[in-house]
Amino acid sequence: MPVPTREQVMALLTEPVRRDGAEVEDVEVTAAGAKSVVRVVLDSEHGLSLDDVVEFTDLVSGVLDGADTGRSPYTLEVTSRGVDRPLTLPRHWRRARGRRAEVRTEEEKLIGRVGVLDTAQDPAVVDLVIPDRAGPAVRRIALDRVVSAVVQVEFSKPDPREIALSGGPADTAPDGPQRAVPGTAAKEKDK
Question: CA of 71: how far to CAs of 3, 65, 66, 74, 116, in Å?
C-alpha cells in the first residue's frame, strides 16, 4: 500500500495540531525511491522554536502511526513555516510586522517594511512603510490587491524611523511573546 496522500495527511493532522496551538500550513508527499517523504509545514501565532518542532514531530508521528496510512516506508519531516514562504494569510502579515518585504500588486512592485494589519476593514488592509529621501512614508494596501509578498532577509540595521512607523516588530502576540526560531525535525518511518 502507498503512503498517505496529501489530503489524507491534512485531514488526520489538522485537529490534533490545532489543539496543541499550531496550524498545518502545508503538506507535501513525494516519492523518493523505495521510500517516500511526507513533509508537514506548521505555523503558529507565537512562532515555533526548534523544541516546538520536535514536540510536533512526535505528535504528527503518533497520529500517522495510529492511522491506517499504508505500509510503505517513508521519512517524516516536520518544519516551521520559514522566512521564505509567501505572505498569504492575515496571520502571516501580523507576524511579519516590522520586517522588510517585497510586495507585488498588479500595478507595481514595492519594497517596504510591513506595518500594522487592519482586519476590521473589508478587505483587510496592511500598512507598508516605504523608504524615501524625505523620510519613510506609510502606504495602505488592501490585501486583495496583493499578487505576491515575501519577507526579505536584511543584512543591515533597519532605519529606526521605518521601525517606528511600522509599529515595531511583531514580538508579542495576543496572549504572549512570539518565538521565532525556525527549525526542521525528521524521522524515518518503516510501516
Answer: 7, 10, 12, 9, 48
pLDDT band at 180 (very low <50, low <70, confident <90, very high): very low
In this predicted structure, what is the pLDDT of residue 190? 58
C-alpha to C-alpha distance for 19 and 61, rounded to whole angstroms:
16
Widest distance between CA atoms in the chain? 64
The span from the CA of 28 to the CA of 5, in Å, is 9
Q: CA gyration radius for the chain?
A: 19
pTM above 0.85, yes or no: no
Gap between the terminal Cα atoms of the chain: 10
Both 29 and 72 in one domain: the answer is yes
Please, how many CA atoms are within 13 Å of residue 120, restricted to the half-sphere of its CB? 1
Q: Do 182 and 163 fall into the same domain? A: no
Residue 1 lies in a domain: no
164: left (phi over 0), alpha (psi -120 to 50) or beta: alpha
Half-sphere exposure of 155 (CA within 13 A, CB side): 0
User: What's the grid cell of residue 170?
Assistant: 511583531
